[in-house]
Design a protein that fits this description.
There is one protein chain. With about 550 residues, this protein is mostly helical. The protein folds into four domains: about 5-135, no CATH class; about 145-360, Orthogonal Bundle (Lysozyme); about 375-435 and about 495-535, no CATH class; about 445-490, Membrane-bound Lytic Murein Transglycosylase D, Chain A (Roll). Helices cover about 50% and strands about 5% of the residues. The protein is built from 23 helices and six strands. The strands form two sheets. Strands 2-1-5-6 form a four-stranded antiparallel β-sheet. The longest helix is centred in the N-terminal third of the chain and has 23 residues, at about 65-85. The termini are far apart.
């Protein structure tokens, strides 16, 4: 195909991505409708990841249609590999251009784009296109809205905030008293002005999601003895979007990279990515923040270390101490830090000040997000998600919304029962239907088909199990060298991070319901409006 056509296809694809980002970042005007925590609302809020608005019917695919489109993409990937193995350049080019058109068409469906399997095949196919044509990082999934926000802040932070914005700040907002200093200076005021100019794009969606996730974060931070106002960091990190991913491959509402997530107890393997689990990642974030505070002795420096490599912050701290003999504050080393980190603390401060007291900034009331509530149920077999949904008599999409950490279309193989979230109040139906299900229909052990070039060590690393355990699971003396097409049984793991959630309930089903958020200015007593999850345990696990 001539270069002109290839360029045209790229322009069309990039235009579609731009439209997808614009669609995702546009929110409906706020409503004063009273909060109604229905699962239909929860599904709509979660599926429109950036803007928390329900997609129109023309932009939504049924599960069957989504699977059909995924099948099409995976077939293109397989066709591409066959053409590459034959060095058939003409066929490779044809497949790659068909791929661009197919991906272009797929980006208009948010509930397809959010699926982990779509994201994996999307990245694989776009890498192939870039490798052949040298396209520099232009075909990619839309960035997190917060990533776009930070890019915009870089452009605006050097412009002074309008005087009217500074003058309009209530006196008690200019002198906040909190465990985490909220410095009201020029960078912070500039950020406040920017957010207020873009309140429909950022502030109103954040306020809606805060009503869903803040009660959970408040409770976990109280249990971990972390200052309550640090909950606003989740907004600065991700806009409270559990599916948010950055260019640096950070993920979840707390934007953990894989290495740090694992260090703080989050499982990340082909079955689960607990960085996307709101509760578990919040617990991990609380412990990371405490460690950073112990390291730097200053909450603003701890926030800087959260945003960039703590070693970078430590280097500049030590350099300042060597030069002056004094311990620096964040603002003492502000000019030495990376540009994004310089903007990060002002973004946190501005977000905390506005979201904690929206009435002071004349923000309209918004329709509250749905209550974060679910039945937390141990399941002792790796059931497909569709079967879990059928047993609970709910759509599969509700199971996926409540369990964003699941990367596969089934529960992971686990030595101990794996806790899965079901819509609140559905455990009884699930358990009754599971008990009535013939045992012979239970899912078999999960297996891996050996591909060309694979070794026992490589397969073990893929599934995050020991090589010796993989070989022994498949029989004593099982050969380390395997033949293409052989089937290997994958050893089960214990997902400790998951099991720890229910330790206090003796591994029984738990009903969890976090209450509604009470808006209160920073500096007020956190116990005012404190919401504690209601926990109740059923008598037995689901078997």
């Amino acid at each position: 195909m001539p270069m002109q056509n290839r360029t045209l296809l790229l322009v069309v694809a990039l235009g579609a991505i731009g439209l997808a980002i614009l669609w995702r970042e546009t929110a409906h005007p706020p409503s004063s409708t009273q909060h109604q925590a229905t699962w239909a609302q929860f599904l709509s809020a979660a599926q429109s990841i950036p803007a928390a608005r329900p997609p129109t019917s023309s932009d939504t695919l049924s599960d069957r249609e989504a699977l059909r489109r995924l099948d099409r993409l995976y077939r293109l990937q397989a066709d591409l590999m066959r053409a590459q193995s034959r060095n058939d350049d003409a066929r490779i080019e044809a497949i790659l251009h068909t791929t661009v058109r197919t991906l272009h068409a797929s980006l208009q469906f948010p509930n397809l784009v959010e699926r982990p399997r779509f994201r994996r095949v999307f990245r694989a196919l776009t890498r192939e296109y870039e490798h052949r044509y040298g396209v520099p990082d232009t075909l990619r999934l839309p960035n997190s809205p917060v990533s776009n926000l930070r890019d915009d802040l870089v452009a605006s932070v050097n412009r002074r905030a309008p005087a009217s914005v500074v003058d309009a700040l209530p006196a008690d907002l200019r002198t906040q008293h909190s465990a985490v200093p909220l410095t009201m200076n020029r960078p912070t005021r500039t950020t406040i002005a920017f957010l207020l100019r873009n309140k429909k794009r950022y502030l109103y969606p954040w306020l809606r999601r805060a009503s869903t996730y803040f009660p959970m974060i408040e409770q976990i931070f109280a249990e971990e003895n972390v200052p309550d106002e640090l909950k606003y960091l989740a907004i600065a990190e991700s806009g409270l979007d559990p599916h948010a991913q950055s260019r640096a491959q950070a993920a979840g509402i707390w934007q953990f990279v894989a290495k740090t997530g694992r260090r703080y107890g989050l499982s990340i393997d082909p079955w689960v990515d607990e960085r996307l689990d709101p509760e578990k990642s919040t617990r991990a974030a609380a412990r990371l923040l405490k460690d950073l505070h112990r390291k730097f002795g200053d909450w603003q420096l701890a926030l800087a270390g959260y945003n960039c490599d703590p070693g970078v912050v430590q280097y500049h701290v030590q350099e300042y101490r060597d030069r002056t003999g004094q311990r620096p504050s964040f603002w003492d080393i502000y000019e030495d830090l990376p540009e994004e980190t310089r903007n990060y603390v002002p973004l946190f401060t501005a977000t905390a000040v506005i979201i904690s007291n929206p009435a002071a900034f004349d923000l309209k009331r918004v329709q509250a997000g749905p209550q974060y509530a679910f039945d937390y149920v141990p399941v002792d077999r790796p059931l497909p998600i569709d079967q879990v949904a059928t047993l609970a008599d709910v759509p599969p999409s509700q199971i996926r919304v409540l369990n964003p950490e699941l990367r596969s279309d089934r529960l992971p193989p686990s030595k101990k029962p794996y806790y899965v979230r079901l819509p609140y109040g559905t455990y009884k139906t699930f358990a009754e239907n599971l008990d009535a299900r013939p045992r012979e229909q239970s899912s078999p052990k999960l297996q891996h088909v050996v591909q060309a070039g694979e070794t026992a060590g490589r397969i073990a690393r893929r599934y995050h199990v020991k090589r010796s355990v993989l070989l022994s699971t498949n029989g004593d003396g099982y050969p380390a060298q395997m033949s293409v097409g052989e089937r290997l049984t994958i050893p089960e793991k214990t997902y400790e991070g998951n099991a720890r959630v229910a330790d206090g309930a003796d591994r029984a089903p738990i009903r969890v319901r976090y209450g509604s958020r009470t808006v209160r200015p920073i500096g007020s007593d956190p116990s005012d409006g404190r919401v504690t999850a209601t926990l109740s345990s059923s008598s037995r696990p689901a078997r």
